[in-house]
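Section 5: illustrative case.
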């Protein structure tokens, strides 16, 4: 029993060291950030992989719960930026991209490792004041269910993890949130296009994901290195029912004659 307890203690002590690398320090947990310029700062979390083992990163502002199915990326604050350039970034948050959701916002920090694969860190949750848009019902409900908690989603570590590098061995949801151009390996994951809302609430659109680089072929290209692309399943469901309205009567004689003229 003593040996078993000791082994469990060692395992618990080592568990944190297989996760994390980037610790977002700004915005702070539960902070009140005014709409407009969003300043972002981070530091080495002190656990592997170290920042020195990472090459580039992409930062997205997200609203929603801790599950990928209840999250909506709003804007890209940094796109394939280099860690060597510093440990801060900033972007402008338009007021109309979402609604006033308390502790509903967090940052998704996707880093590319020099040894291959990616690791996704999340900031703590915070509030952006002055938002005038609309937050999706599923996203708002997921935030409410958290009861005011400020912890963001758990880290997704896919650094040099066999076929999981850049995507994960099994598609569980987080794989589809990694920008396509940052994924590596034989399998890539594409997000499902969101369902359009019932009315337009934004005048200026912002792409959910950064565009992918391309090269115009002038000679024969090498064989593709990607074997499969998986697209996230659509979570929307619809229902239908029979129209019970009574059939309309036939046209009056004059209208019937008019319509008959066009039968040929």
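Designed sequence:
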């Amino acid at each position: 029993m003593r040996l078993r307890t000791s082994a469990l203690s060692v395992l618990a002590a080592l568990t944190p060291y297989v996760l994390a690398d980037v610790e977002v320090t700004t915005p702070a947990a539960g902070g009140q950030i005014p709409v407009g310029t969003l300043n972002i700062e981070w530091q080495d979390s002190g656990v592997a992989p170290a920042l020195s083992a990472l090459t580039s990163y992409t930062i997205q502002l997200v609203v929603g719960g801790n599950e990928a199915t209840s999250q909506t990326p709003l804007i890209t604050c940094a796109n394939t930026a280099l860690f060597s350039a510093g440990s801060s970034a900033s972007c402008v948050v338009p007021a109309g991209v979402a609604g006033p959701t308390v502790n509903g916002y967090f940052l998704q920090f996707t880093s590319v490792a020099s040894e291959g694969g990616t690791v996704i860190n999340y900031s703590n949750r915070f509030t952006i004041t002055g938002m005038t848009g609309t937050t999706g019902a599923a996203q708002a409900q997921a935030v409410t269910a958290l009861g005011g908690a400020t912890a963001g989603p758990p880290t997704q570590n896919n650094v040099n993890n066999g076929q999981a590098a850049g995507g994960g061995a099994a598609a569980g949801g987080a794989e589809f949130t990694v920008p396509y151009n940052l994924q590596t390996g034989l399998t890539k994951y594409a997000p499902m296009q969101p369902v359009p809302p019932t009315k337009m609430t934004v005048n200026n659109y912002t792409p959910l994901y950064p565009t992918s680089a391309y090269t115009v072929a002038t000679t024969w290209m090498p064989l593709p290195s990607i074997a499969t692309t998986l697209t996230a399943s659509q979570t929307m469901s619809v229902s239908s029912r029979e129209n019970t309205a009574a059939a309309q009567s036939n046209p009056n004689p004059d209208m019937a004659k008019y319509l008959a003229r066009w039968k040929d």
